[in-house]
Amino acid sequence: MSVGAHIAWFDEIGLGDRAQVGGKGGSLGELKRAGIAVPPGYVVKTRAFERLLESLEREAPVRAAVAAVSPGDLAGVTACSRALRRRVEEAELPGEVLEELSIAQERLVRGGRELPVAVRSSATTEDAAEASFAGLQDTYLWIKDPAEIIRRVRSCWASLYSVESISYRRKLGFPEERVAMAVVVQSMVDARTAGVMFTRSPTTGDRSVVTIEGAWGLGSAVVGGEVTPDRWVLGKITGEIAVREISDKLIEHVPAARGGVEAVAVAEERRRMPCLSDADLQGPADAPHVHLWDAPVPLTAGDVAEIVRLLEESEFDELHFEQDGLKLTLKRGSAPSAPDAPPTPTVADGPAGAGRKPRGELTSTAAAGLVQVTAPFVGIFHRAPKPGAPPYIEVGSEVQEDTIIGIIEVMKLMNAVRAEARGTVVEILVADGAVVEYAQALVRISRGAQRG
After folding, report:
1. How far is C-alpha 7 from the chain's CA centre?
2. 258-266 long-range Cβ contacts below 8 angstroms, 24+ apart
3. In the 8-state DSSP scheme, what is residue 217?
4. Is the peptide bond before 145 cis (omega within 30 degrees of 0)?
5. With contact defined as beta carbons under 8 Å apart, do 30 and 12 qualify?
6. Which residues does 253 contact at the CB level (< 8 Å), separation at least 6?
7. For 259-285, what is each residue's pLDDT tens digit?
8. Model's pTM, two decimal places?
9. How many angstroms separate the Cα of 117 from the Cα of each of 111, 153, 323, 435?
10. Dihedrals phi, psi of 259, to nearest 5 degrees
């Protein structure tokens, strides 16, 4: 499906391609790979931005002009921003880039019908381990005219030189050579309700819950802070709604007739009405939490580890599951004292290749007192809080349950990974900056009394 050297579709990319598609593009690719329903789209890769920049650099400096500005000189930053944004927005796209972009858009709209799209900045620096550039670059919603799409691609590139973005990079001493911009072009959804879902609590870090914030209309009103969203907290295991906060939603963002988005007042009767019902939040009542296929296959050690992880992250001491003759009970308690590990159980599971990704295997180390810390989600693993800083742990480090062993970067969030066991680090299994899969083993810890 590839169009050329400057375009990539979501199903062709992941976080490992961040240097070419930026943070947002890489994350959308990972969601697509995971089988999540993502509106179709493509990414104009950083190679296209670099080609445009090369042509501008032949006329006058761009990156050197930014590097020469003092972060405290607001007038200087403003003048630099104004000049560079104008140059980028007025520059002609290289012919090859323009041709590939036109072909990609024709494929996306499927036969020429009008299809509104979002044109979204996807900088390689969002979010870096040592900085967060979220919100500093531009996004344009409900763009319908093909010529407008091309103009907005240039505008996204130009927003890399906004006053805010230049000031932030200069304040941090961020090297301009590391800064580049990809652009996401994605089909829009005419949403009744939109918002944000966090796969752990954004306030407490609790991984046993999902937090959802939403409001009427398009999600730009929520992420832009123009409306106070409704908020729910749900248990991952039971689906029970533990927190329900319904706000007074004064406005909503809706598509404008000629393209773009406009804010309109919410009707009085809808302002304090929940924008999502319990059925929306919890899904169909008859949808099983665990799907079982007909073909029996062995339950791998990685699957067992995942079941145990879910139990550990819940607040329950005992978990029962029963369906079609299968009865499974998990109960907290001490590990058996017998030296021999029990045989691997089997259940009716998915057939090979049924859309399930292989997970990191849990080695038979329980009897030896070893604990394996695994990745709670797909992302980029960082061993240190920022480049050049000492790593959180080394082999031989003594850890407590709440000791941070690293950070996983995903969807613009830096998520601390904790040891959740008391003991000594005996092996680090993942290199700094590596892309990790869900449930992939990161670190091994030897349980027991610590030295001293």
Report:
1. 21
2. 259/116, 259/142, 259/143, 259/144, 259/145, 259/148, 260/140, 260/141, 260/142, 260/143, 261/141, 261/142, 261/218, 261/220, 263/221, 263/226, 266/216
3. B
4. no
5. no
6. 141, 217, 218, 219, 220, 221, 226, 261, 262, 263
7. 999 999 999 999 999 999 998 998 744
8. 0.64
9. 15, 12, 43, 29
10. 105, 155
